[in-house]
User: Fold these one by one.
Assistant:
Number 1:
Amino acid sequence: MAVDLPKVVPLTCHGHSRPVTHLSFSSVVDDNQYYLISACKDNNPMLRDGVTGDWIGTFIGHKGAVWQARLSSDASLAATGSADFSAKVWDTHTGECLHTLQHSHIVRAIAFPSQPQPQVVATGGFEKKLRIFDLSRATSSASNSSSSSPTSPDGMNGTTNPTPTPCYEIGPGVHTGAIKSIVWGTDLNILVTASDDKKIRWWDLRNRAVVASHDVEGPVGSCELSSLSGSSGTSLSVAAGKTAYFFSSTQPGQLLKTVKTPYEIASVALHGDRRKFVTGGSADTWVRVYDLDDEKELEVHKGHHGPIWSVNFSPDGKLYATGSEDGTIKLWKFCKEPYGLWR
């Protein structure tokens, strides 16, 4: 079988001490620069240079495992959801916690709208409630902080807000399982949730109602929007059971393709322009690359020593990142030409 990519050794990013639960890239910010944030059960999400994987800073303040972490499109803000019953919003330049959003159970999912310096954030988790928080009307939770260092314990001031951040719930009682992932699509009025009741739901924020839903065959592993810069092939990619689902990113609920694999998959990411997708195993430790059209397995990459809970393509599509139970992040080159540290 002809493979058009030479074998390349991945870059391994160390620093976490527990399983890595989620990875997310920013958009390309300037001069082909972009960033990567990782969520981890060691309580400490980390910001990295997306091209090289070099560590930039650690956000200190959560008291429990961090399940999901996302960057705003311009990488100016980070948002994290944690087992300490809170979500936090951070300044990525200083590491300062700007807002702490208290919940009554574990926060598994968090999302920003795809716009610079977003003023709202969506959360979900074991409460089975989808909430939208208005950050523009919030009181800063770090207003009394004596330090702005991203790695200083003094900079984590922000465990409680003087007054709660205004929020509203979308679709009370609709979710019958924990919300595992939230995706804010290209249409800012549409929000997608993936939950443990094995349903993907599309919500219209204007009337706060479900406009489409789709049942999946097993527990949802990942649900992410492919967001390659200038790509015509963006889609919503979902891993559930042994199946990868690809939905339209513009038409709520429109299923473009399903691919059944012989393996339990925990994560999936699509490269729309290349018509290929990558899966991370939940029962094994392997990364697999597939052809989207003929559904054939093209490559198998070994290197992780635990299930691969998250996989994401960089915004320029030149590499993808994997995060594993083994506590490491790996960056895998996905282009023929020299790129980043691969020369």
Number 2:
Amino acid sequence: MAAEPQGVVLITGSRSLANGDAAVSEIRALSDCKGTVSTVQLDACWEPSVTAAVAYVTSTHGRLDNLVNNTTIGERERQDPRHVHLRDRLETNTIGPVLVTESFLPLLRKSQHPRLVFVSSRVCSLSRTADANSPCYAPKVGNYRASKAALNMLMIEYHLLLNEDGFITHGVDPGLVVTEFMDVNEDYLRSIGAPAADVGGGTIAAVVKGERDSDSGRVVSRYGINPW
């Protein structure tokens, strides 16, 4: 998105402002960066932080055209009892995006073409997980999957609630890409064919730019539409 023509304003939300600033510096250093990029402290699980972020966007821009909910924690090794581990995933991966969405809705309603995006994953597909022939047929990331499957349902709910108000709502699966998210060695990810993170980012950008509007209300990926 930062490579789009002058006038695009990209605001990244980060729990750690230092990490957010570092990411913004990397984006600004790109040779094709033409837009305006900034960051705001945003902890999706802490209401005062979300309220402050809304106040910042309100005072600096007065509206929001696109909201991309990408707050996520993965499975990782379980040290806590399963119900505690699951509660943490639901708090971040499911409830956090609802808090952020509900808080930013008034600003989205001021846009002429509001878009709402929830970053999902192919591994939370119920049909794939239940298919013995699918790579997803393995009990390895159950709590993460459950939280993201719940997010998919909420995405559909928002699509139904806001469609008549002109909102375009999507779930987006960026696919397996090389990032630190999975706590897996990046060289290993490359060895199994995972592309760079900007490939997944490109899928999200395509939705934000309106290239997948006909698929509103579905979870889309670079390969098509994910099955439920």
